[in-house]
TrEMBL record:
This is Hydroxydechloroatrazine ethylaminohydrolase. Belongs to the metallo-dependent hydrolases superfamily. ATZ/TRZ family. The keyword Signal does not apply. Its EC number is 3.5.99.3. It comes from Shimia thalassica. The gene is atzB. The lineage of its organism: Bacteria, Pseudomonadati, Pseudomonadota, Alphaproteobacteria, Rhodobacterales.
Amino acid sequence: MSGILLKNCAAVVVDDGNGATCLRDVDLLTSGTEIKAIGPDLDATGLPENTVVRDASGWFVYPGLVNTHHHFFQTFVRNRADLDWTKLSVIEWLDMIYPIFSRLTEECFYHSSVTAMAELIKHGCTTAMDHQYCFPRHAGKGLVDRQFEAAELLGMRFHAGRGCNTLPKSEGSTIPDAMRETTDEFISDCERLIDAYHDPAPFSMRQVVVAPCQPVNCYKETFVESVALARDKGVMMHTHVGEGESPVIEARTGLRTVDYCEDIGFAGPGAFYAHCWELSHDELRKMAASGTGVSHCPEPVYLVGEEVTDIPAMQALGVRIGLGADGAASNDNSNLMHCIHSGYMLQCLVAASRAHPVPEPAAFLDYASKGGASLLGRKDIGRLAPGMAADLFAIDSRRMEYVGTRHDPISLIPKVGIGTNTDMTMINGEIVWENGVFTRVDEAEIFEGAEKALATLDGN
């Protein structure tokens, strides 16, 4: 792969590190895996003969989206009326859904990962961090390996969050014994995966995150050992925090979850938490001071019915923010672009009750790109500029749904929303989706494989 030249782009959302701006009527040139130049009238002469030239007239070009929290395996338990949150309490729902999770096979984990990644790519996501905490004993220990296989199939930049649950139900967790691991099992497999797959080099396509599921379902030693391993190996840490469990953790330990994690050392620039909707401003200040990040997942609010996360306070207090699609058990799609729109609109809905104003629409696009890169510890992705990874997506704006919106490409996604697939998604300099077709795989074939694996579950 030599390079790709996008000619006559109607707009390119660029960022030199000081905030996003929009360049009009410019070209974008990639060389190998990186962006070479962005500007008007880039000369195609002198480029290698196999440089691909695309007419990008009418295209709005954006940085590839970075998904910082997902549960790919849950794509196999979505759109089920029997698991409707509105008819169940959280505890009732967990008691019903975990036995279903425990029946998943290795093939289910592989094909559900392909399913989630394919949908993400179609909607402009170029990097994804999956929080895979479900390890039924019968499915074996190769589940994350199969996820890396799925990412390679589609060309996805993938960060594998190797999760676990170690606390038994008899001691207060919600995890069936068939899905529970020991701390030693977990740490040993994390170390194996890091040694086998983790690549810290620029433009890396594979990284590993140490990600015990959540403090409420794990022994303290699990988190202590996670911190030790992550620091020794130089990898990121991730877990669920602030989604209603703080009173439980406080009853067990005398500390709410943020203080509990900070006391253990599961905090700082090398850590980020998912959700955080129940946290106080004092807790957010502590996270800002330590550099701990938040993966905000807006769409579960619709189904779970909990309060809207106070993003204006996080922004005002200096907390690092990224976006996550979350699992299909609480968000029935894998569309991070839709989360940008949902995230902004939900904040507008509750603006009158907030102490701080809603961030500008552009901030929500930033959370889903540069903000997500920051959470994952990446400086090479998340924005469009020469020298950055060639991760991007394009929307042809010459459609009726964009009439009246084309003056502000940066606010288009947060304010208006994008109701269609991208016209093109590029990852690491390779076009992996274009004109409704995956370039590496036959969609009909991967659909058939996923449907066959799904059919092995009872009740579908």
